Amino acid sequence: MRKILLGALGMLSLGIVAAAALTQMGFPDFAADSPHGPVLHRLIEWARERSVARRTADIAVPTDLADAGRIRRGAGNYDAMCAGCHLVPGVENSEIRKGLYPTPPNLAQPVADSNATDARHFWIIKHGLKASGMAAWSKAGMADESIWDLTAFIKTLPSLSPEEYRRQVEASDGHSHAGMDGHGAGQETAPAGEHEPHHEAKPHAHDHGGDGH
Ligand code: HEC
Q1: Pocket test for ligand 1, best of 134, 153, 155 (most atoms within 8 A of CB)
Q2: 151 assigned to some structural domain
Q3: What is the helix (H) or strand (E) element at residue 72, kind and residue range?
Q4: Per-residue confidence (pLDDT) for residue 184, from 0 to 100
Q5: Which of 31, 93, 138, 162 is the least crowded, having the fewest Cβ atoms under 10 Å away?
Q6: Whose CA is nearest to atom 32 of ligand 1?
Q7: CATH number of residue 62's parent domain
Q8: DSSP state of 150
Q9: Given 3-state DSSP classes, what are the helix, strand and coil percentages for the chain, each rounded to the nearest 5?
């Protein structure tokens, strides 16, 4: 028994030394245009989902996520802050999304993912995900209620046509959420439509030599 334990400890130490040596030599590749191998990729996804599941178990999901007011408020904030990375109905990709790794999920498409619960979405929007492009929006001052509004809107997003999406955004208060600059909702509220969407629904003025246009 002792021998087995010592052997296991020896293997573990060897593994740690090998991992340290590989890291010292410059592995893995941190370039966003060089995807992880399948094993490392699965390992990271597994660790991320375990970590999020542990932290969402006690979150009480509001019962009024289908409320039209929530969805309407969420629409304007989604268009102002999220659309560039997570897309909108009728838009296939965006410049920033093409370059990000991990690729931001297309939230305008139905998900077949059993992990996609409301509590998980709320938690990810609030806390962000390390070493991805996903920000902790609470650090920007976004209050929980506004995060639930976004969670409510995301639920309906895959069922919207491009026209319905536009209508929801236009009916919303634009980029306005509780917690903006530490003030309450409604302060510094931009009129609907003032914020241009940050996605490629319309041609835009900037020009560069890529073949994406
Ligand atoms: C700069 C790009 C970027 C922006 C802007 C952004 N996100 Fe993300 N988001 C990501 C990335 C990348 C991931 C995936 C991270 C990962 O897989 O580890 C992600 C993941 C998510 C997820 C988890 C989706 C799932 O089911 O796995 C949700 C929900 C989400 N973001 C919502 C939002 C909302 C709401 C906003 C706006 C307030 C937003 N994001 C803004 C990049 C972005």
Answers
A1: 134
A2: yes
A3: helix 68-81
A4: 43
A5: 31
A6: 125
A7: 1.10.760.10
A8: H
A9: 50, 0, 50
* Segment (H or E) for 77: helix 68-81
In a domain, 169, yes or no: yes
Look up the domain containing 168 and give its range: 54-182
What confidence score (pLDDT) does residue 181 get?
64
What's phi and psi for 23, nearest 5 deg? -65, -45
Q: Which of 41, 43, 82 to mutate to test the pocket of ligand 1 (most atoms within 8 A of CB)?
A: 82
CB-based contact 85:124 (threshold 8 Å): no
pLDDT of residue 204: 55
Ligand 1 nearest-atom number relative to CA 107: 24
Q: How many domains does the chain have?
A: 1
> What is the Cα–Cα distance from 136 to 123, expressed in whole angstroms?
9
Alpha carbon of 165 to ligand 1 centroid (Å): 19
Does residue 30 sit within a domain?
Answer: no
What is the model's pLDDT at position 185? 43
Q: Per the domain annotation, does 162 fall within a domain?
A: yes
193 CA to middle of ligand 1, Å?
A: 23
The residue assigned the tokens 């130490």 is: 13
Give me the average pLDDT of each 10-residue run along the chain (213 residues): 91 95 92 94 95 95 96 96 98 97 96 82 98 95 96 96 97 85 46 47 65 51
Instruction: State the Cα torsion 66-67-68-70 to the nearest 10°.
Output: -100
Give nearest CA residue, ligand 1 atom 7: 134
* Structure tokens belonging to residue 178: 């509780």
How far is ligand 1, taken at its centre, from the CA of residue 114, in Å? 17
